[in-house]
Design a protein that fits this description.
The protein is α/β, with parallel strands linked by helices. It contains 17 helices and eleven strands.
Length: 396
């Protein structure tokens, strides 16, 4: 589980690749806490749970909760047909973000955006084909890498700041506004492959034939993504989830070299400046990597549905202990999204089983992956209601 290989390498990347230095936003950072109707300063339920505090109930939200499974969203798509319109026009992004929060009363309201949104601010253009998905001109050489530059989020993505600040005004004090970034390895899969892939052969070929080139791409991405995470926090995000969705295709050895060190760069940058902001990491099909994910120092590991919750909690604790980190660590998840196609009795039984296994502290209930587009809205609503009504022994 050692991160030495890539960590040492970070200091030695050359070949003309930019050495980045940070730029800062001129906006006044928003407070990380909320104010209730009595003027009291409070932390939302989800934030307290993510920090491992004892809470009055289990908080809940759903990955991809804003989007295609909601009829209001599908209707909105007729007026704003491209994903980039829906995510980059602030008032539209705000409306889409608020739809599941209004409809289901989720404890978290996550910014409607995409992990590729910051790429143009780094000098990498992309488009999202509604059928194919993200499309990027493949990055193959050092000359391609030299075209990248450090992001200035306030210039490149003012719409993100506006959307986040508006969400903080719109939601209740008990609700957490959530931000997110993609991780360098996952974003690099799009840069190298040029589009979504099933086997990720092009990036693996680069890893095994030109590892220095891949490390240069990953380092540049990590520098900018760390800045982007700070920008989101300064504009209202109270928690940052990092998605390394495709790192689950890596062997443990390659995860240690090409994914974990760059995740840690982002996490360390967040904690250095905003130590009280909780962080969450998610990787699809991560059953072989749980201890390694926990060893990065992330506050909460989001488990996918292929891992037993009780076993997952033990493995997170073991990974942290081996890395010399204190505390058991938090956990998020991990209902199979397919369960939401079942009847209410099945949804209730499966959700309550997970919460019982997770225990009363340090658990944020969620799905084990994003909600499916065909999920009935009434089933999603029942899942949220089930979690909100559940109480561990001793909870109010």
């Amino acid at each position: 589980m050692k991160l030495i290989t890539a960590t040492v390498f970070l200091a030695s990347i050359g070949n003309g690749v930019h050495s980045f230095s940070a730029t800062s936003s001129t906006s006044q950072p928003l407070s990380l806490t909320n104010t209730d109707s009595s003027g009291n300063t409070i932390d939302p339920l989800l934030i307290r749970a993510a920090r491992g505090e004892t809470t009055e109930r289990v908080p809940v939200w759903m990955m991809r909760q804003a989007g295609r499974h909601i009829k209001e969203y599908r209707d909105l798509c007729k007026k704003y047909p491209t994903f980039r319109e829906r995510s980059e026009i602030p008032e539209v992004a705000v409306e889409v973000s608020l739809q599941p929060w209004r409809n289901y009363q989720t404890d978290g309201c996550i910014l409607f955006s995409d992990i590729l949104t910051p790429l143009p601010g780094m000098g990498v253009e992309f488009d999202i084909d509604e059928k194919v998905g993200p499309v990027v001109k493949p990055m193959k050489t050092y000359d391609d890498v030299k075209k990248m530059h450090l992001i200035d989020p306030s210039t490149a993505m003012p719409f993100v700041a506006e959307a986040l600040r508006t969400l903080r005004q719109e939601v209740t004090p008990e609700t957490a506004v959530l931000g997110f970034v993609g991780c360098p390895y996952t974003l690099a899969t799009y840069l190298v492959e040029g589009k979504t892939s099933k086997e990720y052969l092009e990036i693996k070929k680069m890893a095994f034939t030109e590892p220095k080139l891949l490390h240069a791409i990953l380092k540049n991405l990590a520098d900018s993504l760390g800045e982007y995470a700070l920008f989101q926090i300064e504009n209202g995000a109270q928690l940052i989830q990092i998605f390394d969705s495709w790192a689950g295709h890596l062997s443990p050895r390659d995860y240690d070299e090409f994914a974990a060190p760059y995740q840690k760069m982002i996490l360390d940058k967040i904690k250095e400046k905003y130590p009280t902001v909780p962080t969450v990491t998610y990787i699809k099909h991560s059953g072989a990597l749980i201890e390694r994910m926990a060893a990065t120092g992330v506050d909460v590991v989001s488990l996918d549905w292929t891992v037993d919750m009780a076993e997952g909690r033990d493995r997170i604790a073991a990974g942290r202990a081996k890395a010399g980190l204190s505390g058991r660590g938090g956990v998020q998840g991990n209902l199979d999204p397919g369960v939401l196609f079942g009847d209410f009795a099945t949804i209730k039984e499966r959700a309550e089983e997970i919460m019982k296994k997770a225990g009363p502290t340090g658990h944020v209930m969620n799905l084990g992956h994003g909600i499916e587009a065909a999920t009935p809205e009434e089933n999603a609503a029942y899942f949220i209601e089930t979690v909100r009504n559940y109480r561990h022994e001793g909870q109010a």
